[in-house]
Amino acid sequence: MSLSNRYEFVLLYDVKDGNPNGDPDAGNLPRIDAETGMGLVTDVCIKRKIRNFVELTQAGKQQNKIFVREKSILNNMIDESHEQESVKEKAKVDQTEAAREWMCENYYDIRTFGAVMSTGKNAGQVRGPVQLTFSRSIDPVIASEHSITRVAVTTDKDADKQIKNSGDVVGTMGRKFTIPYGLYRCHGFISAHLSKHTGFDEEDLELLWQSLMQMFDHDRSASRGEMSARGLYVFKHDSELGNAPATKLLELIQVTKNNDAPARQFSDYTVSVDESLIPQGVVLDKKLD
């Protein structure tokens, strides 16, 4: 059953001694707004974590496969849709549309975020009902640079270079970038109208909420340090069209710093919302507070 309500949400998460989203064009430095110093995390980065969580927890479920995944060949999966008997039956009318419907039915991330599938045998394009913004840190962040070494080598030639007159082995030098602490804020939007075109339903929605709350717990790496979801605030409208402007609702979630010292933990901030200002026809669900 497709959605019958519009949603907006605020996701708060933090990083401690890690790099939440390195920029490959800048030597993997943490992404930072050059004018304000605020940290940035792309929407693509968060979608990747959601995809990974769904693939991890929904393995074996035909309807929750992931289209955009590591080492996948997209054209092969698009071509697969044209080989389905159900698609061949409908293909007498519109083969591309029939393939698009099959892809939506079988791939969670297509139903959720949409996809361009006009390559290969062509399964059209899908505009997903769930859209995310870039995440932005509450306060400016500073990237720390750390020198690191690697003692192990990959070739005999490299090993010879590391041997000094004293016989000591000197490791290969490298660099690592981290943010001491940053609290990030991401906004999300869910369209009931677009859900009808992809088949995104209430069950898919619950899986999305679960992913947002738990995805960091299953995405650990040395480079990302400690990352944790800290708040998920969902505004639910009692209609498909919506009962209030999204911007006005999102602004109700206020995050303030408790003192002037550099923030180093989540308790250095206070999250508040004046629920008396929530318009009629909208309810706030604090899924993680």
Explain this structure.
The protein is of the alpha+beta class and 289 residues long. It folds into two domains: 7-142 and 176-288, no CATH class; 144-175, no CATH class. 29% of the residues lie in helices and 31% in strands. It is built from eight helices and 14 strands. It starts with 6 loop residues before the first strand and ends with a strand. 31% of the residues are buried. The mean pLDDT is 92.
Describe the secondary structure blueprint for this structure.
Layout lengths: L6 E12 L3 E2 L5 E2 L7 E4 L1 H15 L16 H9 L2 H22 L1 H6 E3 L8 E3 L2 E3 L2 E6 L3 E7 L5 H7 L9 E19 L1 H7 L3 H13 L11 E12 L8 H5 L2 E5 L11 E5 L8 E7 L1
Antiparallel strand pairs: 1-10, 1-11, 2-3, 4-8, 5-6, 7-10, 8-10, 9-10, 11-14, 12-13
Helix pairs in contact: 1-7
**What is the first-to-last residue Cα distance?**
29 Å
Share in β-strands? 25-35%
Radius of gyration equals 23 Å
| Strand and helix order | EEEEHHHHEEEEEHEHHEHEEE
Q: Total strand count, please?
A: 14
Largest sheet: 8 strands, antiparallel
Q: Mean pLDDT, rounded to whole units? A: 92
> How many domain modules?
2
Helix and strand content put the structural class at alpha+beta
What is the helical fraction, as a range of percent? 25-40%
Shape: flat
**Uncertain segments:** none
What is the number of helical segments per DSSP (H or I, 4+ residues)?
A: 8
